[in-house]
């Protein structure tokens, strides 16, 4: 019997992931998911809810900033950029999904991109590092979904 907790095992698996774990199939699928999410997010920048969160978020500023999709002249602190871009993705509700209902890329990609942009120039990450971060985020979300008794009941509630 293992003395390790579920949380400890989960953390070890996630911490142990590296670019060597990304198969060609995972890389190709990830690129498709990222492209789809960016497309839906750019379309979502025209929605009323996205306009509202963008206006609200303008009160925040920082020396460290990330891009708001569809607005080349407007940047926000990474936390708020991820929030606004995530709202843009979800506002169209065309982003990818899995069963039970959750939208993995719309939650992960805006955060990964905002953090990557906010890194100092000397610490910029490679495209492969970005794909790894994206996949780690998807893996975390998938495992949390699997652990959740609430998530298992989503189809029955709707």
TrEMBL record:
InterPro entries: MmgE/PrpD_sf (IPR036148), MmgE/PrpD_sf_1 (IPR042183), MmgE_PrpD (IPR005656), MmgE_PrpD_N (IPR045336). This is IRG1 decarboxylase. Belongs to the PrpD family. One of its GO terms (molecular function) is aconitate decarboxylase activity. One of its GO terms (cellular component) is mitochondrion. One of its GO terms (biological process) is defense response. Gene3D superfamilies: 2-methylcitrate dehydratase PrpD (1.10.4100.10). Signal peptide: none annotated. It comes from the Eukaryota.
């Amino acid at each position: 019997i293992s003395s390790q907790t579920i949380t400890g095992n989960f953390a070890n698996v996630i911490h142990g992931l590296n670019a060597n774990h990304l198969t060609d199939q995972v890389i190709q699928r990830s690129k498709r998911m990222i492209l789809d999410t960016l497309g839906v997010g750019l379309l979502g920048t025209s929605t009323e809810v996205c306009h509202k969160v963008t206006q609200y978020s303008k009160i925040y500023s920082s020396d460290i900033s990330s891009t708001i999709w569809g607005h080349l002249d407007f940047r926000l602190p990474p936390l708020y950029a991820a929030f606004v871009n995530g709202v843009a993705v979800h506002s169209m509700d065309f982003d990818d999904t899995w069963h039970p209902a959750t939208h993995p890329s719309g939650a992960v990609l805006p955060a990964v991109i905002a953090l990557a942009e906010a890194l100092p120039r000397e610490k910029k990450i490679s495209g492969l590092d970005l794909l790894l971060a994206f996949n780690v985020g998807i893996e975390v979300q998938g495992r949390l979904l699997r652990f959740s008794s609430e998530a298992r009941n989503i189809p029955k509630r709707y």
